[in-house]
Amino acid sequence: MTFTLFTRDAQPTQPLPYQLLTLWTDVTNAGGAVGFVPPVTAVDIRPRAEAHLTAIAEGRTRLLAGFTADGRLAATAFLALNDHPLMRHWAWLYTVMVDPALQGRGYGADLLREAEDRARALGLEGLRITCRGGEGLERFYASCGYKEIGRAPDALRVAPGDDRDEITMLLPLPPGD
Questions:
Q1: Are the C-beta atoms of residues 145 and 119 closer than 8 Å to each other?
Q2: Are 128 and 170 contacting, i.e. CB atoms less than 8 angstroms apart?
Q3: What is the reported pLDDT for 72?
Q4: In the predicted model, what is the mean pLDDT of the chain?
Q5: What positions does the domain N-acetyltransferase occupy (predicted)?
Q6: pLDDT of residue 174
Q7: CA separation for the pair 120, 90 (Å, rounded)
Q8: Closest by Cα among 67, 76, 71 to 27
Q9: What is the pLDDT of residue 57?
Q10: Which residue, among 119, 173, 129, has the nearest Cα to 150 in the 3D structure?
Q11: Residue 71 pLDDT > 90, yes or no?
């Protein structure tokens, strides 16, 4: 199964919001570190998803979405633009997700390359991402060119007695690459 990545720069239309909730729920319940701890339902995720969709509608965020050949949402990443005048040259990448049934096939790396291409097209010079320590995510992002630039020890509480580091990583996008 393959999917094609493309960017949505406007308010997503149906059935995308429903598909986003389904994907986010599935990824979280499979153990994905995407802002929640399992078990969750779409009701749990809906407020965060609606905030993301609002940011897209307001032009503050771009949605990168990968769909299967039959139109099912299979992967997402959100590119949050900075409005601060001293930070407009870079953006945050967040809520990077690939359908659990499709993981391990290179789609995550494809999604990150698409985000890099989109950032360059927007004239950005860098992407930052944070990830939850203890999941091995920093190794994946490093394999895609990201470098660790900071770590907040025990910043994320996933359960009582289970605090994790929040790791900030940067992908420089030098002009001319």
A1: no
A2: yes
A3: 86
A4: 92
A5: 1-174
A6: 87
A7: 10
A8: 76
A9: 86
A10: 129
A11: no
73-81 vs 147-159, strand pairing mode: unpaired
Hey, how many other C-beta atoms are within 10 angstroms of the C-beta on 4? 12
Report how far apart, in Å, the C-alpha atoms of 46 and of each of 43, 86, 172 are: 5, 32, 32
What's the CA angle centered on 151, arms 149 and 152, to 5 degrees? 145
**Close Cβ partners of 152 (under 8 Å, ≥ 6 residues apart):** 165, 166, 168
Residue 107 tokens read as 């789609």
- Per the document, the length of the chain is 177
pLDDT, tens digit, 9 for 90 and up, residues 121-156: 999 999 999 999 999 999 999 999 999 999 999 999
Structural contact between residues 95 and 77, judged by C-beta atoms closer than 8 angstroms: yes
Contacts of 23 (CB under 8 A, 6+ apart): 73, 74, 75, 76, 97, 99
Residue 113 has pLDDT above 90, yes or no: yes
CB-based contact 149:168 (threshold 8 Å): yes
Q: Is the peptide bond before 17 cis (omega within 30 degrees of 0)?
A: no
